[in-house]
TrEMBL record:
One of its GO terms (molecular function) is metal ion binding. Pfam families: DEAD, Helicase_C, HRDC, RecQ_Zn_bind, RQC. Belongs to the helicase family. RecQ subfamily. This is DNA helicase RecQ. Its EC number is 5.6.2.4. The keyword Acetylation does not apply. Residues 32-200 form the Helicase ATP-binding domain. The gene is recQ. It comes from the Bacteria. The lineage of its organism: Bacteria, Pseudomonadati, Pseudomonadota, Gammaproteobacteria, Alteromonadales. It catalyses: Couples ATP hydrolysis with the unwinding of duplex DNA by translocating in the 3'-5' direction. It comes from Thalassotalea marina.
Length: 601
């Protein structure tokens, strides 16, 4: 039986009751209403945008069970710990639990004593497990990190491809697929593979405006990272490397410089990795130096910076990794230290893949990272336009915007490039297009008759690097798009029409030397009582240590900031603070009220 829609006023009341929030974030309310009405959905929200609440609140409200498919054990534990302290009964089933405990969980499910059950995709694809679920009053399936289902997704996971069985076993139960990073091709693949029925599709903005995007040339990488972290000695962060060796090498160097850090990579024992992740979540470790193995499932809200010491292989991976910073909505920074030699190493690894199809796909995806590195336009535009969220507005919070390059009237050269895309029937990649523009003959160009085009050779007075820079900017500005399913063929967008017709001016960036602007600090000043905030952090840490949970599960940094600003001294005033509902008020309210009163004496 499918649950009937619930009035919006009930949603707000439930949001306040369970999570202590007085308003929904963008898109959450519509997604939740669709889930409650029994409709399938595909939800794309940025990391930290509130995806989990889209299924957690319906789970709390529905008369039955919500099954959440989650890729990592650590994430399951964190989510269950947090939900339990919100007054929502939850559990997880994974390989860490003995069979007796799993049996007890199923007894609780059958007795109606649980609202949410977290499972790994591998377990949900086992027939005996599905049979066990079939007798339960399941009301919703939520598939987190849904991009893992697609071969085009950057974290492809084979077990996800078998999740279409859900619709076979439970054809009338709504399925909600959620992800933070999926380009157009990956989105189509998710819908196809999961066999969603007339799904509601929510495409939220990918933008995370609180994260400053910064690129800097890496010349003394270890010294640069050390200096950066020491300047932010009170903040937690992640440093990503592409190899296990580099993780070990850099973490040792940082530790010898007196930085409280730990290494994390796939070659370490599971127990050690679990200890590192647990200690990082509980603020016992300041910095984790990691490979992508430290990826999905990082649910720590107060990470203030993410550093890429070496390049990620895809722009999706980059954006998901930096999205682990600033999940509480407060200011954070993503620093990318770039060197050409690092990029060459990644390309060599990609070239060593014997699977030709996979090798070409990986090369095309890494090209988008190269474009990001060499951007002369707003870096946030590069990322948002890559995800088909076209914007021509600069963000004001990246190194390009803070320290802009010089510009020139680029309308004519843009028209040359766009015209050439049109005349090559939108089937040419960047290298081929540049060859045509520069009048270079080849067997393929002659065979296609493109040496007879009016655009053949019109840009012969410019270097290949110049034309590649122009094409990159046109992609970044949303006038061109690369079709990765067609060997990165350049395709005109609707926005390119006005450029081709000369209906609007166009300024493009001239090449420049990259400047490191990551040391610049935000001019905004916090309006809360910093002395009280420091005391609140100590109290939060004391409570969290006593309960053996991460501090953000008690209250996140944004909630502490409001407490330090408004200084509530009654239960009613506490409930007006974002992130504090009745359950958390009962559990923690008196201790924090007492501290605030003491501070004001």
């Amino acid at each position: 039986m499918i649950a009937s829609p619930i009035p919006a006023v009930s949603l707000i009341d439930s949001l306040q009751q369970y999570f202590g929030y007085s308003a929904f974030r963008s898109g959450q309310e519509a997604v939740i209403e669709q889930a409650l009405s029994g409709r399938d959905s595909l939800v794309l929200m940025p990391t930290g945008g509130g995806k989990s609440l889209c299924y957690q609140l319906p789970a709390a409200m529905l008369d039955g069970i919500t099954i959440v498919i989650s890729p990592l054990i650590a994430l399951m534990k964190d989510q269950v710990d947090g939900l339990t302290r919100q007054g929502i009964k939850s559990a997880y089933v994974n390989s860490t639990l003995p069979q007796t405990e799993i049996n007890d969980i199923f007894k609780r499910l059958a007795a109606g004593d649980l609202k949410l059950l977290y499972v790994a995709p591998e377990r949900l694809t086992q027939a005996y497990f599905l049979e066990g679920l079939s007798s339960l009053p399941i009301r919703l399936f939520a598939i987190d990190e849904a991009h893992c289902i697609s071969q085009w997704g950057h974290d492809f996971r084979p077990a996800y491809t078998r999740l279409a069985q859900i619709k076979h076993w439970f054809p009338h139960i709504p399925v909600m697929a959620l992800t933070a990073t999926a380009d157009v091709t990956t989105r189509k693949d998710i819908l196809s593979q999961l066999q969603l029925n007339d799904p509601y599709i929510h495409l939220d903005s990918f933008d995370r405006p609180n994260i400053r995007l910064t690129m800097a040339d890496k010349y003394k990488g270890t010294e640069q990272v050390t200096a950066y972290i020491k300047k932010r000695s009170q903040d937690c962060g992640i440093v990503y490397c592409s190899s296990r060796w580099q993780v070990e090498n850099l973490s040792k160097a940082l530790a010898s410089a007196g930085i409280n850090c730990a290494a994390y990579h796939g070659g370490m024992e599971n127990e050690i990795r679990s200890i590192v992740q647990d200690n990082f979540a509980k603020d016992k470790i300041q910095v984790v130096v990691a490979t992508v193995a430290f990826g999905l499932g990082i649910n720590k809200l107060n990470i203030r910076y993410v550093i890429h010491f070496e390049p990620p292989r895809t722009l999706e991976a980059y954006y998901q990794e930096i999205g682990r910073a600033g999940r509480d909505g407060l200011a954070a920074e993503a620093l990318y230290l770039h060197s050409d030699s690092d990029a060459e190493k990644i390309l060599k690894r990609i070239e060593s893949n014997e699977n030709e199809h996979k090798r070409e796909v990986e090369k095309q995806r890494f090209n988008s990272v190269s474009d990001f590195i060499q951007a002369q336009t707003c870096r946030r535009q590069v990322v948002l336009n890559y995800f088909a969220e076209y914007t021509q507005s600069a963000c004001g919070n990246c190194d390009i915007c803070i320290d802009p390059p010089t510009t020139f009237d680029g309308l004519t050269v843009a028209q040359m490039a766009l015209s050439c895309v049109f005349r090559t029937e939108q089937k040419a990649n960047a290298d081929y297009l540049v060859a045509v523009l520069r009048g270079q003959t080849s067997e393929k160009i002659s065979r296609n008759g493109h040496d007879k085009l009016s655009t053949f050779g019109i840009g012969q007075n410019k270097t290949p690097g110049y034309w590649h820079a122009i094409i990159r900017q046109l992609i970044h500005l949303g006038f061109l798009q690369q079709d990765i399913s067609q060997q990165s063929a350049l395709v005109l967008t609707e926005a390119s029409r006005s450029i081709l017709k000369g209906e609007q001016p166009l300024l493009l960036a001239a090449p420049r030397l990259q400047k490191a602007s990551y040391w610049r600090q935000s001019n905004s000043s916090a309006s809360y009582d910093r002395g009280l905030y420091a005391k609140l952090r100590v109290l939060r840490k004391t409570i969290a240590d006593a309960e053996d949970i991460p501090p953000y599960i008690v209250f996140n940094d944004a909630t502490l900031s409001e407490l330090a600003k408004y200084k509530p001294t009654t239960d009613r005033e506490m409930l007006n603070i974002s992130g504090i509902g009745p359950t958390k008020l009962d559990r923690y309210g008196s201790a924090f009220i007492s501290l605030i009163k003491e501070h004001q004496v």
